[in-house]
Fold this sequence. Notes:
There is one protein chain. The chain is an all-alpha fold. It folds into two domains: 10-57; 92-223, Lysozyme, CATH 1.10.530. Helices cover 59% and strands 3% of the residues. It has helices spanning 13-57, 85-108, 117-127, 131-142, 171-185, 194-201, 203-207, 211-223, and strands at residues 69-71, 77-79. The protein starts with 12 loop residues before the first helix and ends with a helix.
Amino acid sequence: MGPEGAGFNSLVPDQLDYWGPYWQYQKSMSRLVWLAAFVFALPAALLAAMVGLVVVTAPKSLPSKSEGYVLASSTQVYEARADDSTNISAQATAADARALIIRNYLHRYESPLEPNAADLVTIGDKYGVDPNLLVAIAQQESNLCRVIPYESHNCWGFGIYGDKVIRFSSYPEAIDTVASTLKKQYLDQGLITPDQIMQRYTPSSVENGGTWAAGVNQFLSELR
């Protein structure tokens, strides 16, 4: 190797004695520089990490009332953002659970209303009527739609007096009409218990000792 590429290893002993302390000084300074950089960088990194943690874990502020409300099925009011997918998901899950309970109940009695379990929940919630009440009245009036006028879809004895029969084109239409009537002509007027509803829905049962209300109450207890 030529003189230009010999490098540090080509130095003679006298030169090593001269340059040795210099290289040791350079190495010491380099270590001090790295140590200083580490000492100053570590607190900065820790501070940045703490700030990030505070930002991530800080609680979100509650929305104002003008941002939207969600009315729960249990009639309790929960404040939430209109686009709050968590609340929407929770409500959907609750509705699915009630529909499943009602479906299983209808299946146990081999009711033709079984495929409309979700309709009972959806329409009941639409009018603020307990879906279980719709099921209980149907059970009292028609053994859950198993004994009804031919092709009437009328499981609730709704408007049936002697030969007079109100017919519906489908079970959902019947459910909607009955739920709407219960809401407007009964619940909104303070008739909220089976005994109170019976006085207008089927007055003759009052004279017979309230058997209609007793049956509805029994079926409601089975559903809960």
